[in-house]
Structure formats: C-alpha cells, structure tokens
Design brief:
Rossmann fold; globular; 14 strands; alpha/beta; single chain; 9 helices; 10-stranded mixed beta sheet
Amino acid sequence: MTEKTSANEVTGLRESYGDAQQTARDDRTMRHFTIRHDGVTLPVTRGGQGRPLVLCPGLNSTQAGLHELAELLRRDHDVLTFDLRGHGLASAADRYSFEAFLSDLAAVMAELGRLDPDSAPTLVGYSLGADLAVHYAAEHPGTVAELVLIDGANPVPEPFLTETLLPEFRAMWEDLATRQESERGTARQVLLTAQEILDLNIEIDTVRSRILDRYRKIDRPISLIMSTSMAGDSGEGHAPRFNQNWRAGVERLVRDQPHLVTSWLDADHQLVFTHAPEIAQIIRSTRRPGGQATS
C-alpha cells in the first residue's frame, strides 16, 4: 500500500518485518513501516501508549542500539524510533552530511504529522540527533511539544577536532569502522566509512559553533540530559580538556537560555546505553502534563 504526503513527497510504505509487524506487547501493538525520500529508505518502529515521542539516534547509533531506552519510554509515550541513512536497517546513501540527516528527521516528522495531525510530539535526540532536533524545531515552529536533548547540541567554545588531532581521530574511526564490519547485515550496522565519519564530526563542530542562534528561535520547553565526563573519566590524554570544553558549552548555553532544564548524569557519552533507566526517569519527571517545564 502506498500513501503519499504531498508537502514533503514522502511515501510511507507499510511492510512486514517477519512476524513482528503486529507483535502484541502487553496492551500495545508495535507497528513497522518505512519512509522513502531523497533516494533512501528509513525503517520506522512505533508503539507504546500516551503522548507521541520521536527518538532520534545519533551518528553511529541505531534504533536497535536505543532499544532499552525506547522500551522504557513506551510505558508513558507512543514512541517512534527510526534509523538515519546508512545506519541500522536504513539504506545507504550517496551523501552523508548534516543537512542530509536533517532531511531524514524532517521526513519522519512529516509522516508522523500526516498520521497524527493534531498531536505535536516530544522530540528526543541523542548526540548528533540532539543537534538535528534543535535545527528541526527552529525551522518548523509549532510542530513539536518539547525537546529533550541527550549529550548533544552543545555550543562548545572550542572545536573538538583541531588540525593536530585529525590523524589520531582518523585512526580511531578507522578502527571503529573495522570493528563494525562484524555487524554488517544486522540492525546495528553502520555503513559509513571512517573518512565519512571524520568529515561529519568536522561539520558538527561547525554546526555547534552557530547553534545558539537556532536555540533562540525555539519557543518550546527544552531539557538537557548531559554526561559529566563525555570523553571518559581518565585524567590523562585529551579527556580532561574535552570534558572541560563540554561543560563550558553547557554553561554557555544555560547563560543564554536560562529557562532550560538541565540534568547531569555521572557517565560518558555512551549514557544512552549505560544509563537508559535514569534517562527515562528524567524524561518522565521533568515535565508536567502539557509539556510545561519544571524547575
């Protein structure tokens, strides 16, 4: 069955994912479909109860990797998860850029708006997904009820990838790409090359240097959930400087946007995988009905 949304030229194709298409989970039914746009196919999973919530993954993360957090959130929300291009069960693309990933999120939000035109969702983004969420909300006023940003969208005062560090990070991501080979063909695969990941991180540094302007355009409640040691708790190497830069970025953001609700978790950047119950509880407790922020 083909259904089109003319505003975004998004085609939602409901497809079967084996026996999982109508899997009963307590009183909830999981639904699986795909969205095709810009030459890519994005797999979407939806299920839960309550107000709608969209969970946007980050670079090198997939909806399969965010499964624990999504399941916890489904106790209170109708949760929609998806894979960005080149991640998980999404198709590969001929380009990977911030704007391309932002178009993926916009396509998912357009489809949700078509399915539920009268209910603006909570938009939760992790890492790069947080940056995408901020840009989306700034460019589409009134389409989200609130934002929850997990360890991303941080206006850090200094870029992470300096010229001197490029060889070190290139080697790190080459090693990551090699290790990810074992997940090819699975729901956790990442199809990007080490060079594409490196280029994206350079671009993300540039995006974050200007992201305060995006925050200023958003008139919805915003919560931050940030790691205390995003680069790990080692006192050696680059970790102390990276962690200091991360905290300085949050302090800068809070000064500019004092209405933000900020929570810190004693964790590194993998907090969505290591601290899913705590994150779900923060999302559950920092909002009043209707999306109003608590102090």
